[in-house]
Amino acid sequence: MIKKCISCGELKEHHAKGFCYPCYKKLFWKPKIITCKRCKRRMPHHGKGLCPGCFNFVFYSDQNKNWSRMKKYNISPEIYKEITQECVVCGFNQIVDLHHLDENNKNNELNNLIGLCPNHHKMLHDFRYKKGMLDSIKMKGYSIPEDEKINFVHKST
User: Fold this and answer.
1) How do the domains of the chain map onto residue ranges?
2) Which of 2, 84, 103, 111 has the most beta carbons within 10 angstroms of its beta carbon?
3) C-alpha angle with apex 154: 126 to 114, nearest 5 degrees?
4) Could you tell me where the DSSP H helices lie in 46-125?
């Protein structure tokens, strides 16, 4: 039912007590204050006994991570999960980073992407361990771009 709101005077759908929905919510509606099950802060209730921040973290963090990966790497979440199942060097499967073999983050072709654990990923980007890491990746059957094999010696200026 459309009526004139007592508060703002606009013709809007009537909610209660002669107010439109936004005015009623602003003036009369008070959220239930609870102790969040996760963070133990006293906050307005959002759902499932959680405050809004914890609710979003618990129920939407995977969607946020997938969206961020799609935006950053321009690949689907399924391909990202497939590539980062385990480190190609050691087989570690708990935390796996995505590495571009040619170190060009714009080149997102499947044959340019491999999964590395944080230790091996850091070693690959450190000039002291780069040659050994590239050799072990090559032994696993991955092709390394030719220009990637240079710059093993630390240059001092």
Assistant:
1) 1-30, 32-73, 76-149
2) 84
3) 30
4) 52-73, 77-83, 118-124
